[in-house]
């Protein structure tokens, strides 16, 4: 469960908050990592400080216009940045795609799962989504485990859907519907 304070959410261990320009250096350090790049759909590599700054600058406008909600995943006490989580908002169909990344040094600590649960609650309770979906490369089984732990159901596989690094990648598609009252 999470507690929401406008654009900041807290969980047991985490604070999901808007990114600040002062986070750009850490975003650059985390994202300029080949291991992170190879398991993400849209992250460029190499990743520059300018990429981090321009990406952070898009968040406010996207949030205001209810297009995309991007949150820094940080330690609730120390505010140390661990990664990012976001969800798109297709208002016409009341659904969105969940996406996340954690700095490699924070993999395996359950932060993505904890943050994803909070974002699901935000999507269903505050933004009235009917469905949230997510996709991952079949080779990134850790991301699939996060989706399963938050109650998402495997809906199918998009075979050889993405061409990356001179090979085709399968995308595994998961989804979850809003709880019915």
UniProtKB/TrEMBL annotation:
InterPro entries: Acyl_CoA_acyltransferase (IPR016181), GNAT_dom (IPR000182), N-acetyltransferase (IPR051531). Residues 14-169 form the N-acetyltransferase domain. Transmembrane segments: none annotated. PANTHER family: GNAT FAMILY, PUTATIVE (AFU_ORTHOLOGUE AFUA_3G00765)-RELATED-RELATED. This is RimJ/RimL family protein N-acetyltransferase. It comes from Paenibacillus shirakamiensis. The lineage of its organism: Bacteria, Bacillati, Bacillota, Bacilli, Bacillales.
């Amino acid at each position: 469960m999470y507690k929401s304070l406008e654009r900041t959410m807290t969980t047991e261990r985490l604070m999901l908050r808007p990114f600040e320009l002062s986070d750009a250096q850490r975003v650059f350090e985390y994202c300029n990592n080949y291991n992170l790049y190879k398991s993400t759909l849209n992250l460029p590599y190499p990743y520059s400080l300018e990429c981090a700054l321009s990406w952070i600058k898009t968040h406010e406008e996207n949030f205001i216009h209810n297009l995309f909600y991007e949150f820094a995943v940080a330690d609730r006490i120390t505010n140390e940045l661990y990664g990012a989580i976001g969800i798109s908002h297709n208002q016409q169909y009341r659904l969105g795609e969940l996406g996340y990344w954690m700095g490699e040094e924070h993999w395996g600590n359950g932060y993505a799962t904890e943050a994803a649960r909070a974002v699901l609650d935000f999507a269903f309770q505050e933004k009235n989504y009917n469905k949230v979906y997510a996709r991952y490369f079949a080779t990134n089984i850790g991301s699939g485990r996060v989706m399963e732990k938050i109650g998402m159901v495997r809906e199918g596989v998009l075979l050889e859907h993405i061409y990356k690094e001179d090979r085709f990648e399968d995308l595994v598609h998961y989804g979850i519907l809003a709880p019915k009252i």
